[in-house]
User: Which sequence fits this backbone?
């Protein structure tokens, strides 16, 4: 019995990718040929939140907005690391035979998180009651 080359095992995947690309291209082509293309001035105006845009869109924002956004991402990623640990906590085997090893490791991790959080509080990044120029 002749053996089939290993590359032929990828044939279903290749057919799936070709089919998905074909369907996507067909939808775009169909919308181009079937859809109406009438450009009115009202259609081409920018629209945001039901309000007409006023002023320049390149206005300056306080650096605090960016700092809060970066902190949100940072603490969100930390929560992503905390969730899987909480799910499998009871099944952690422990390296030295102690079942509490995973618990103590997570306490060290949370200690680092709290140090970062207290640093942010000390710097006053989350305090919006006054404007500080030294951030």
Assistant:
């Amino acid at each position: 019995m002749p053996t089939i080359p290993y590359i032929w095992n990828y044939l279903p995947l290749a057919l799936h990718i070709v089919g998905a690309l074909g369907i996507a291209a067909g939808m775009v082509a169909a919308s181009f040929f079937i859809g109406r293309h009438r450009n009115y001035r009202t259609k081409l105006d920018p629209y945001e939140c039901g309000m007409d845009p006023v002023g320049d869109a390149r206005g300056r924002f306080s650096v605090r907005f960016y700092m809060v956004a970066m902190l949100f991402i940072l603490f969100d990623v930390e929560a992503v690391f905390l969730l899987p640990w909480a799910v499998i906590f009871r099944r952690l085997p422990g390296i030295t035979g102690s079942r509490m090893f995973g618990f103590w490791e997570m306490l060290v991790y949370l200690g680092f998180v709290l140090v970062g959080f207290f640093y942010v509080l000390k710097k006053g990044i989350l305090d919006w009651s006054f404007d500080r120029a030294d951030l």
